[in-house]
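Q: Could you write out the predicted structure for this multi-component system? I'm mainly interested in how the pieces pack against one another.
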Amino acid sequence: MQEQEYQIENQESFELKHIFDCGQCFRWNEEDDKSYTGVFKGNVLNVKKDNNTIYFKGIVNGNIKDIVEDYFDLNRDYTKIKKTLSKVDNNIKKGIEYGEGIRILNQDLVETILSFIISANNNIPRIKKIIERLSESYGTKIVWNKKNYYAFPSLKQLENVSVEEYRNLGLGFRDKRIYDTVHMLLNNQVDYKKWYDENNTLKVREELLSLAGVGPKVADCILLFSDLKRFDVFPIDVWVRRVMNELYIKNPDETKVNKKDIERIAYQKFGNLEGIAQQYLFYWKREA
DNA sequence: CTGCAGGGGTAAA
DNA sequence: TTTACCCCTGCA
């Protein structure tokens, strides 16, 4: 592996902050020069945007152009998606204006599953630290510019890790969930390679829910943020509940808002684009 | 300094 | 439907 570079001009819908801060990923960090460096699928990549040019460079396995196009979902027409969603109502229109540069990344499925199990009842800084320690401890080291980076560990690399070792990394009560799910995946208790060919998102969701530590919210995040790329899901966490209540349901007692109502309204309004609509609403209300 | 609530949920009661 | 859960942070 050696360093490669790539650049693109005038890419629509591509803002680093929007992409990396909208809650979909945990391994991208901002550098002093406002660029971002991240580790994904065994690659280390730095991304910088200047005016209308985006510069990519890093240590990647394969052709950097292919890797960037795939990971950043560059072949999808976000302009068209935004146009369609903007017509729904003024709320989503404002959300889109706020987060117009969001793209949903094609992240590794296993990494996304384990990362979102760790995200349960947890906050982002702590999630990031845990994932970093997990990668440092068991992932493959990649050296770039005299700095050490660590790929997210493969299932094989996690095969012999004990519950206690996870506990020592600070996973807390999530230790057993990670252990169990790693072994459920290793033992092919769910046939996750088939999920890519399954058109029925609900069927895949059903199987995801059988994994330890995967409930409705985590399952929807995996479907939306991994390279399974399903936009017909609507992950509901406290923020989304807050936004949806504020904009559409208007229940004075937010804790009384029914998940089923949120799901119904989301599908009614945004249809099969509800997943990406969720991201615009979430990012808008959480940052603002 | 100590105490405590709460955090981008899940699983068990 | 309600509650415990492991750890860290912010704040009284």
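A: Regarding packing and overall arrangement: Chain A has three domains: 2-75, 109-225, 238-287.
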